[in-house]
Amino acid sequence: MTQQMTRHQQFQLLMLFTVLTLMVLMSSTAHAGTGGEYFDDVWATIKDWTEGTLGRIIAGAMILVGIIGGVARQSLMAFAMGISGGMGLSYSPQIIEGIMSATLSSAAAVTSSTHQISNGLGI
Asked: Which residue positions does the secretion signal occupy (predicted)?
């Protein structure tokens, strides 16, 4: 009985290696992060909305609701939430582009200061 299981396991192992070999041989090269031009129009529209008149109206409404909620509850927390929501909406396109962009505008300054801190000699 154990020999039959061993043969069965050997067959399964052979099939696994065959499938893995075929997957490696038939796979194409993957390029992460390339392309994406399809959504540029959508991002431009959303960015224009949030930075334009619509975004200002929504941010102002959030601040106004926060002020009214703060007065009604006699708490500064609702006021702070309205202000922070409006600011978050206003600055969200710049934050998203800063996180998702692949370029760093201050990389040279950060790199030189990191070398200065890391060894203490400024080399």
From this structure: 1-32
